[in-house]
Amino acid sequence: MQTWYFSEQSYHPAWEQVKGDIRINTSSDVVDPAVAHQLLKRYMDEWVVADELGFDIMVNEHHATHTCMSVSCMLTLSILANRTKKARLLALGVPLLNRYDPFRIAEEIAYVDMMSGGRLEVGLVKGTPFELYVSNANPSHSMGRYWEAHDLIEKALTHQSGPFSWEGENFHYRYVNVIPRCFQQPRPPMWLTTLSASTAAEAARRNMVLAITASAPTARGAYPLYRQEYMKIFQKPAGLDKLAFLGYVGIAKDRATGLARGQKVLKFVEATERTSPNFIMPPGIMPPSGAAKMLKAGEVRSHRTRVLPDGTPMSSKPLVGEYIKNSVMFSGTPDDVFNQLKEFYDSVDGFGHFLMQMGGTLTSEETVDSLELFAREVAPRLRELTNGKFVTH
Q1: What residues have CB less than 8 Å from 302, skipping those under 6 apart?
Q2: What is the pLDDT of residues 305-341, one digit of tens each?
């Protein structure tokens, strides 16, 4: 199993300074430039440590929020391409619904892949619904625009015989010609995230890596659909390298400290819930059946699970013990973390990539210690789980 280290690059001091929403409507005047500068440098340094320890690296981007200062995956990865040596570099992801120039996205992908010597992997994602308000995009046209942009970027990355024109429903170019081309041929590996099991079949048809972020029920529904469709299309089983899961990790030599670190990581989850209901479900972003179900429930809320496996309602604020039960948090000693991961791994018939999210309010010292412990005492055992079953994509 490949383990990827991920941090949201949060400006976490604002979580205590700001009262109420910390997305879209929040003010930027609470950001101390000196503190933000040091935090961004710290996050880069931690990824360099992760590279030295043998982890691969994942980054993302969000906008108008104190939970993530990364405004561009490719800006972050262009730095890491030069500062790291071995790690695969995953952009998960580039939110196509916020970006109106797919040609430019293709150019950035090719540039970073060339700069890194072919270590880039790319997830072209829809992005979070609240960010549609930042880009002023029409949510009711989102899926058509997303897939057209996706197909345009793929063609731009692989077409090498001079410029081509593109006349689509949403994008129009007279000349598309990406120079330099990608280091990897024909292009970097592509990933797809989803919170809906229905998207899994599309990922399989396109031979993409399917990543499920912090939702065990979605993984249990999506992975079988992916495997079924992959077998139908390619007449062979999907390798474990085609499936990924993102979970939170809090780890230390003793259980109490590991659980305390897990609770610090969940401060990020608590912060992301501070989004005005006005921005969570833009009209048209969800299928009518899903929107009707949410409205009938009498509340507009994020995608996160609100019940434990036995049906008991979860606490109003994220608790590490409850998140462990839901296979979203893996926390405690190295043995605890491995056993929790293996139990979930077995329950979904395996996956090949673990996207390990830390961050939250962990200090740099706690983060580095956690990375070293995981690399030394957990990662080797995870690799054994997929030994002989992992097919590189």
Answers
A1: 272, 273, 275, 280
A2: 789 998 899 998 999 999 999 999 999 999 999 999 9
Query: Helices in 116-254 by DSSP H: which ranges?
Result: 132-135, 142-158, 200-205, 216-234
Please list the residues that pair with 190 across neighbouring strands: 122
What is the rounded CA–CA span in Å between residue 356 and residue 377? 15
CB 93 within 8 A of CB 60: yes
Res. 14: pLDDT tops 90: yes
268-316 pLDDT, tens digit per residue, is 999 998 988 878 778 777 667 666 766 676 555 555 778 999 889 999 8
Task: Yes or no: say if 327 and 341 are a contact pair by the CB < 8 Å rule.
Answer: no
Give me the torsion for CA of 356, 360, 363, 366, rounded to 10°.
Answer: -30
pLDDT in the model for residue 381: 97
Q: Given the structure tokens 């063609």, which residue do they identify?
A: 155
The span from the CA of 165 to the CA of 243, in Å, is: 34
Q: Give the residue extent of every domain in the chain.
A: 2-385
CATH number among 3.50.50.60, 3.20.20.30, 3.40.50.300, 3.30.870.10, domain 2-385: 3.20.20.30
Q: Helices 334-347 & 255-272, crossing angle to 10 degrees?
A: 60
Q: Strand locations in 71-119, DSSP E?
A: 89-95
74 alpha carbon, distance to own chain's centre = 14
- SS3 state at 118: coil
Q: Give yes or no for residue 61 having a pLDDT over 70.
A: yes
Kindly report the CA angle at 141 between 137 and 144, in degrees rounded to 5? 120
Residue 217 CA to residue 195 CA, distance in Å, equals 10
pLDDT tens, position by position, 68-102: 999 999 999 999 999 999 999 999 989 998 888 99
